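[audit] Reproducing an earlier prediction to check determinism. Same input, same settings, fresh worker. If the tokens differ from the archived copy the diff job will pick it up downstream; this log only records the rerun itself.
[audit] input (160 residues):
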Amino acid sequence: MIGLRLSTSARQAVRSLSTSSIARQEAVGTVGTVPTKRPVGGFRGGILGFLFGFSVSSGLSIYYLQQENKIASGLLLASVEELQQGTGKISSHLDRLQFVEKEMNGLKTGGAIKEDVSNLRGEMKRVYDGLHLELLDLRAHVWGVEQDLQKVVKTESIRI
């Protein structure tokens, strides 16, 4: 005790409170201090067991986490590779689509539309009709010339 002085009656009262009747009876017959039995390993053994168990469980958990991390990294890498392949396919499809769109725009600007075709068809009909009329006029003219020629031939054959 740190500097407290108790009277003998106070010491006996504290001693009677702190020890059981069996311990008091044993202490009466001996001279000196009674050695107290400590459990073997006691507190120190508990700490060492705890530290050993903690280190083993920590090591196993770190190993498990590393394995899980390795598997997750592999899966992530495979997903990234699949994503790259998919992106490559999509970009090639987009390139083809852009090429087709350019060709379509070229055909639209250079190609004929329905109105152009119908206008051209109308012009061709007018040209054909005009040629047909000219052919008929030419036939009529040729027929007239033949008639005139036959008249001339008849008149000359009569004269001769």
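[audit] rerun output stored. Observation attached for the diff report: The longest helix spans residues 42-110.
[audit] end
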